[in-house]
Amino acid sequence: MTTAEFDRHAPGYRGGMEHPFKRIVGAGLDDFMRPKARWLLRDLERHPLRRSASVPARLLDYGCGTGAFLRALRAEALRAEGFDGDLAGCDPSREMLAEARRTWAGGTPPAFDPMEGRCAPYSDGMFDVVVACGVLHHVPPRERPDAYRDIARLLASGGRAYVFEHNPFHPATQMVVRTTQLDRDAILLRPAETRTGLRAQGLRPLRTRHLLLLPPRTRALRALDLLLDRVPLGAQYVVASERAVET
Questions:
Q1: Are 45 and 115 a contacting pair, CB within 8 Å?
Q2: Claim: this prediction has a pTM higher than 0.85
Q3: Where residue 172 falls among pLDDT bands split at 50, 70, 90?
Q4: Where are the alpha helices (DSSP H) in the chain?
Q5: Given this model, what pLDDT does residue 83 score?
Q6: Backbone phi, then psi, for 205, in 5-degree steps?
Q7: Residue 16 — φ and ψ, nearest 5°?
Q8: Domain residue ranges of the chain, discontinuous segments joined by +
Q9: Options 3.40.50.620, 3.30.2350.10, 3.40.720.10, 3.40.50.150; which CATH number does 3-47+55-242 get?
Q10: Residues 184-215: tens digit of each pLDDT
Q11: 58 - beta bridge partners?
Q12: Digit-coded pLDDT (tens) for 83-119
């Protein structure tokens, strides 16, 4: 999907929640974002960043759209007293960014900045964490190395990249992507491809985990879903990778 098409979808963007199957398993877009936010916060708690604690950590949502992941991350961090660093988001669609600012609630919004193509408007090494949440399946395969390269250059020494993507082996995911207008251009990535792309830019893959094995609508199952992240049957997966610490 082109930037212009994302601009057109921006007002009232629902992240594909028009699909009847997604409405069955989740009440809204937040139900699909919060498991990712919880997993990220838990991973950062279990595997702290190797960085100075004298300044706040900085986290970028690369291809943030309307800021749904950052909203979920802020809500989960406040609830669990997790990540309290600075947040930022960037996206090629200016209309998506406008919607992100308009719909942000609960304090001052993060900086939402427009990208030029695949290039984020920040200097090298500016962020301790870069998250790409459901972004790369919209990027044509021939252009993905540029996205991986940009993600890698944004990371500080010891910084970490987290790529969340649809699991191409999951039958429900295949069905939803195939029948969702928003995903009509999507080409899903296998976890091995994601690891290879990150490794090619000098990042060391740390772990691959799976999410949304269980329906996110059911609150009682959310904690169990986190415990089952090593089971490679979830509807989505995440690859965590790290830039080496410079000495």
A1: no
A2: yes
A3: confident
A4: 3-9, 20-25, 29-46, 68-80, 94-103, 144-154, 171-178, 191-199, 219-227
A5: 74
A6: -60, 135
A7: 80, 10
A8: 3-47+55-242
A9: 3.40.50.150
A10: 888 999 999 999 999 999 999 999 999 998 87
A11: 86
A12: 778 999 999 999 999 999 999 987 889 999 999 877 8
Any idea which residue has 């629902």 for tokens? Answer: 14
Collect all residues with Cβ–Cβ distance below 8 Å to 160 and sequence separation of at least 6: 49, 128, 129, 130, 206, 240, 241, 242, 243
User: How far is Cα 195 from Cα 191, in angstroms, rounded to an integer?
Assistant: 6
Backbone torsions φ then ψ of 19, nearest 5 degrees: -70, 130
Read off the tokens for 27. 């009440």
Instruction: Report the phi/psi class of residue 134: left, alpha or beta, with left for phi > 0 and alpha for psi in -120 to 50.
Output: left
Residues whose CB falls within 8 Å of the CB of residue 111, separated by 6 or more in sequence, listed in order: 88, 89
Tokens of 86: 């600075």
